[in-house]
Amino acid sequence: MLRLNGMRPPLVAIKGSHTLTTYTMEYKIQTIGVLTSGGDAPGMNAAVRAVTRAALYNNIRVKAVYRGYKGLMDGEVAEFTTQNVSGIIQRGGTILKSARSEEFKTPEGRKRAYDTIVREQIDALIVIGGDGTFTGGRVFAQEYNIPVIGIPGTIDNDLWGTDATIGYDTALNTIVDCVDKLRDTATSHERVFLVEVMGRDAGFLTLNAAIAAGAEAAVIPERATVAEQIETAIGQGRRKSKNSSIVLVQEHAVEGGALAVQQEIEKTHPEYNVRTTILGHLQRGGRPSAKDRILASRMGCAAIQALLDEQRSIMVGIQNDEIVYVPLTKAIRTKKDIKADTWHAMQILCI
Ligand code: ATP
Hints:
Helix 2 crosses helix 3 (107-119) and helix 5 packs across helix 6. This protein has 11 helices and 13 strands. It is 39% helix and 18% strand. It folds into 2 domains: 12-167 and 288-333, 3-Layer(aba) Sandwich (Rossmann fold); 170-284, 3-Layer(aba) Sandwich (Rossmann fold). The protein has a 7-stranded mixed sheet with strand order 5-4-3-6-7-12-13, with helices on both faces. The chain has a 4-stranded parallel sheet with strand order 9-10-8-11, sandwiched between helices. The chain has a two-stranded antiparallel sheet with strand order 1-2. It is α/β, with parallel strands linked by helices. It binds adenosine-5'-triphosphate.
């Protein structure tokens, strides 16, 4: 709760209000809660560490919430000191664990979460996750008038308002490493290698990994049809007198993913031997890259600064290497598009 001149205001939810105008006197955030939610991403630990240390540096207590919104509803909370976040910056996954919770989408579920907030005397919440996490955080902030700050932690890089999300760089490097290895065997046989890449509804990982790995084509939801992409891939391979092609397929570019694309190629080009590799959860694992650790550290510190600056319902983002605050509503509702020059580069470079 926001404390007025050291006094705790009555513990009532102020429905529909999400500004600080209700409180005209000076207030101070004394305790924050921090959680990770949705899919885990490498670098989340670095963000938890930064949030914790930046809060303690500013004499703010830290309550770590385990298992995302589920843990918030179930009261899975522990107070963190600086030692709790020692030796975690290099670790993948999240020490706070992550979870998806349908119950938090209901008013009853969020009421249970709010009970924990009251019991643990949490004044503000920092949520690390993707657009689902921010949607939940925004609803909760509105219903219970609690400041919520989002930190983008997802390998998909699909959030508007930030050039990068925590985990994206590491996942990109993991995918490129895998494709490099596949290429060694692909060139030994007359084959089309399909590699299925994660990304929810977005093609950032697929397209940029395709460029970095020198693939023949990238099949992404935002651009050309699957049939066009297949023709591009096979056509390019032939033109280059190659007997094999590597095509990266975004998991939701076509219903059924890369295996559905394989069936299609086998029908239209029976002369090709098609092999599909689904990278799956490999893409989420591993030690975070230096870039992700730095991004997470900067964003974690900026999230605490945002609270000190009386910001609420915002996402911390990075644009042109500057930290920015973006309204959660905008980050969630605006579609982030593939850069036209990136797509164009892919078309040029695969000739
Ligand atoms: P990723 O991009 O890695 O999948 P995410 O944050 O988008 O991460 P989701 O599973 O979509 O992952 O969302 C995480 C959690 O946020 C959900 O399990 C749910 O508890 C909460 N959430 C999502 N949408 C809503 C909503 N409309 N209302 C309330 N809570 C929500």
